[in-house]
Amino acid sequence: MKSVVLNLSYADVKDFVNTVSRYTVETDLKSGRYTVDAKSLLGIFSLDLSKPITLEIHDGKGVDELIKELKPFIKD
Question: Tell me: the pLDDT tens digits for 22-55?
C-alpha cells in the first residue's frame, strides 16, 4: 500500500474522481478518523477539504501511473 497527502479543493473533486476511477486499484481517502472510497463524489464531499487528506492506494496494477496522474493534487 502507498500513501500520499493531497490538497483538494471543491473545484478539484470531479477531476480527481474521474482520474482515480479510470484505475481498478482500490483507493481510500482518510481525514482524521473518517475513511471514504476515493471514487465516491459524495464521500469526498463529506470530508473537511480545508485540511490535507491522505490517499491510500492498495497494491494493484497501475499504482505508479495513478500517482503520476495525481501529481497536481499532491501536497508539496
Answer: 999 999 999 999 999 999 999 999 999 999 999 9
Question: Is residue 65 very low, low, confident or very high in pLDDT (cuts 50, 70, 90)?
Answer: very high
**Residue whose cell numbers read 465516491:** 40
CA distance 32 to 29: 10
Out of 3.40.50.720, 3.30.1340.10, 3.10.129.10, 3.40.50.2030, which CATH number does the structure's domain 2-73 have? Answer: 3.30.1340.10
Q: How many CB atoms lie within 10 A of CB 74?
A: 13
